[in-house]
Amino acid sequence: MRDFLATRWGVVSVGVLIGVFASLLQFWGNPGNMGICVACFERDIAGSVGLHRAAVVQYMRPEIIGFVLGSFVAAYIFKEFRSRQGSAPIVRFVLGIFAMIGALIFLGCPWRALLRLAGGDWNAILGLIGLTVGIWIGTMFLRMGYNLGRTNKTYTTAGWIMPLIMLGFLLMLLFDPPVAGEMQSNLLFYSAEGPGSMYAPLFVSLSVGLALGFLAQKSRFCTMGALRDLILFKQPHLFSGMVSLVIAAFITNIALGQFNPGFLGQPVAHNMHFWNFAGMALGGLAYALAGGCPGRQLFLAGEGDGDAGIFALGMIIGAAFAHNFGLASSPDGVTTYGIIALFIGFAVCLFIGFTMREKV
Amino acid sequence: MDSSVVDTRGLSCPQPVIKTMNEIKKGEKEEITVLVDTDTARENISRAVDAQGWKVLDVQPEDSGYKVKIGKK
Q1: CA angle, A164 then A167 then A171, to 5°
Q2: pTM of the predicted model as reported, rounded to 2 decimal places
Q3: Is the separation of the CB atoms in A194 and A57 below 8 Å?
Q4: Which residue of A88, A90, A139, A349 lies most exposed, with the fewest beta carbons within 10 A?
Q5: Residue A79: CB partners within 8 Å, gap ≥ 6?
Q6: Shortest Cα distance from B53 to chain A (angstroms)?
Q7: Could you tell me which residues come within 8 angstroms of residue A19 by beta carbon, excluding any fewer than 6 positions away?
Q8: Is A6 an interface residue toward B (CB < 8 Å)?
Q9: What is the pLDDT of residues A52-66, one digit of tens each?
Q10: For residue B14, which of A88, A289, A99 has the smallest C-alpha distance?
């Protein structure tokens, strides 16, 4: 299985499984076209620990916990666990913050953009064009010698920190589960209505998260890498996984009656085309500069990459900023401060891209 | 045989591939040894050099990573 997952068919299979199970998770209770969304779910986690208090998006999402822990187990079984960190962590943290702000202006990470497309939400097309443009700008920087420097090998247990944080979150969820209709259990915050109140049964979400984390670690599934490798090296390896995700989710959605084509009235989405495009372009640029889409960063964090863990924590903090300052879009559209944050995000990413280069 | 070493250890994706490609494109060497520290980088390099008409000649474990020797097909 180890060798199979590293092949083209391996990454295609993982794309198919993500697509099928994302649609099923929606069927089992997750929000519309949001069976899996790494950005949205990290935002919900930020809400559940009270970093922001947007009442409708608070839940300790087991899928995110599962992705990190599943990848951790796979990395140990396949002897690929390498504890490493120290490649410009604060830069990665800031990239994580703006990656999240971009994602919340569009309302989704690349995975959700694909799932929205597969559910008939045509606004996702603008998002995916934006994602491609953002990554394309990122490849320009890569061609100009951009890189964040080397990591260092470190204590094995240093690479356990992110998985342990996730284990801690899981224990909190298990011992402090939601109480029907209550906004707060003993510690964690929950949503009584809105997307945060929509979730598949805990053990279903956790099992799917663990299984996908396990498989994605070895197959290196990455939506940013998919477009980047296609643009930079004309190599379609990862891209085939991305396409298979859309096709699998589309077929599953048809089978479950979850396919509703159109621009208007789509779940957790707005139809301001330019800002859908621009939000994802900011996200794409930040993912490209950080070396992975939000999902991939979680799988890397599971296999010992502490810098990927920092990026993920940056996204969680970014979600707190996004909701505390009203930067995140809603179905009504973008906000004024969101637009300002978007421009700041581009300025910061361009500053990072232009100034952190080696001579080539 | 003329050869050179590209050390990509500690560099994140896609730097190992970019650095290897740059060395190939210089066109000076018949053989290149690439040092990598993750399985991902090892796999990415074998996939990428193939498209350039090169191939992996040998992979040896070294430290906690690999020494990948590549050459023209």
Answers
A1: 140
A2: 0.96
A3: yes
A4: A90
A5: none
A6: 14
A7: A114, A115, A118, A244, A245, A246, A247, A248, A249, A250, A252
A8: yes
A9: 999 999 999 999 999
A10: A289
Residues of chain A with pLDDT under 50: none
Per-residue pLDDT, B1:
52
pLDDT digits (tens, 9 = 90+) for A323-346: 999 999 999 999 999 999 999 999
Residue A277 and residue A286: Cα distance in Å, rounded? 14
Q: Identify how many contiguous H helices and E strands chain B contains and give both numbers.
A: 2, 4
Q: Is the dihedral of CA A172, A80, A67, A83 positive or negative?
A: positive
Nearest chain A residue to B13 by CA: give it.
Answer: A291
DSSP element (H, E) containing B35? strand B31-36
Distance CA A109, CA A127 (A): 10
Is A229 close to B14, i.e. CB distance below 8 A? yes
Q: Give the three-class secondary structure for A187.
A: coil
Residue B52 has a pLDDT of 85
Angstrom CA distances, A322 to A33, A93, A152, A337, stand at 21, 15, 32, 9
Tokens of residue A310, six digits: 């920092």
A335 three-class SS: coil
Calculate the alpha carbon distances from A273 to A25, A277, A315 in Å.
Answer: 28, 6, 24
Q: In this predicted model, what pLDDT tens digit does every residue of B2-27 receive, in sequence order?
A: 679 999 999 988 999 999 999 998 88
Q: In 10 A of CB A86, how many CB atoms? A: 15
Residue A234 to chain B, least CA–CA distance (Å): 9
The verdict on a CB contact (< 8 Å) between A82 and B43 is no
CA A208 – CA A211 distance, rounded (Å): 5
